[in-house]
Specification:
globular; TIM Barrel; 8-stranded parallel beta barrel; alpha/beta; single chain; two-stranded antiparallel sheet
Length: 335
């Protein structure tokens, strides 16, 4: 297993050695802290956890297990809008639970990324939900202003729908200004519109003088493979038996798309974070493991940290019901 220290060296060197033609003329984007090198998304669908963290599916011991397996970060998927009162104040119990997550992450050497995961609500009615969006960051920024720099904020997962590029640039700037009042140097993750799409990077507007920003993209190409059989994916739910063999063409496709993001990061002097990737559970395990390893290693060679989607529920790296790692996916990510 590669250690975090060794991986930091790999990321900083960003030497292309396999997986398609080398990008020797394309230096990597600026590298952010190596503690974001290898992450996992957690708590996305664990509603019981937020009622009582001792009764949720995610258990305290999983923090240590993740760290011992070689992961360095957790992207904590937060859906706080349901826990706000009519004055937009967050529930004290919800905040206390988040405090516990942050404390346990830090205590086990994991960097917590506080990811506002209200993408569906914001996409459906951005103007109606903007007050909630800003109120969340006003409260979280103030609450965590004295936390160590390892605590990272992510303003919003996957802007899409009615939250257009122009509107998102405006909302992100306003939220960032709120954060900067109390957290002037904290690392903040911001991604482009269209589901944090790589093709939308040119439309993302960031304050040039703020060099404590990390830009995130998500990658699930080819969707027919990664989302085959997924009931929420209208275009792909009827497919099955699609494989990913690791052919030269398939590897080149990964390198080209992630290289596109890396090129943008280099030109704009912005570090990149691959906040989500993975293949849905309906695909065959060998294909899923090959794909997962290829995406992770390509991101690393291009100087990107990453967070796999996800620990529990679907695309899983850990089977909570069986109390066991999904070994092929874990190994694809960490070896």
């Amino acid at each position: 297993m590669i250690s975090a220290k060794q991986l930091a060296g790999i990321l900083c060197a960003a030497v292309m050695t396999c997986g398609g033609p080398a990008r020797a003329q394309t230096p990597p984007p600026p590298q952010h802290a190596a503690n974001l090198a290898r992450g996992v998304n957690i708590l996305g669908y664990d509603k019981a956890f937020w009622r009582d963290h001792t009764q949720g599916r995610f258990k305290e011991r999983y923090f240590t297990m993740l760290r011992e397996a070689g992961f360095t970060a957790v992207r904590v998927n937060l859906t706080p809008f349901a826990y706000m009162d009519d004055k937009l104040a967050l529930s004290p119990h919800w905040l206390d639970t988040l405090d516990w997550v942050v404390a346990r992450s830090l205590a086990t050497g994991l960097t917590p990324v506080l990811d506002l995961h209200e993408f569906g609500t914001m996409a459906a009615d951005p103007e109606g939900n903007q007050p909630k969006f800003l109120a969340v960051w006003r409260q979280l920024a103030e609450r965590y202003r004295n936390q160590p720099p390892e605590v990272v904020f992510e303003l919003l997962n996957e802007p899409n729908g009615k939250l257009t590029d122009a509107l998102w640039n405006s909302y992100a700037a306003e939220a960032l200004a709120i954060v900067r009042k109390s957290n002037p140097t904290r690392k903040v993750i911001i991604g482009p519109g269209h589901w944090n799409g790589i093709d939308s990077l040119p439309a993302l507007v960031l304050p040039e003088q703020d060099r404590n920003l990390i830009v995130t993209v998500h990658y699930y190409d080819p969707m027919r493979f990664t989302h085959q059989g997924a009931p929420w994916s209208a275009d792909n739910k009827g497919y099955s038996g699609i494989t990913w063999t690791g052919s030269a063409a398939e590897k080149q496709a990964v390198d080209t798309r992630l290289g596109q993001a890396a090129d943008w990061g280099r030109v704009h002097a912005r570090p990149l974070f691959l906040g989500e990737f993975g293949a849905y559970d309906k695909g065959d395990m060998a294909s899923r493991a090959r794909y997962t390893a290829q995406v992770a290693r390509t991101a690393e060679r291009l100087g990107m940290g990453w967070a796999y989607w996800q620990f529990d529920s679907d695309f899983i790296v850990y089977d909570i019901d069986q109390d066991a790692w999904v070994a092929p996916i874990r190994d694809a990510l960490t070896k």
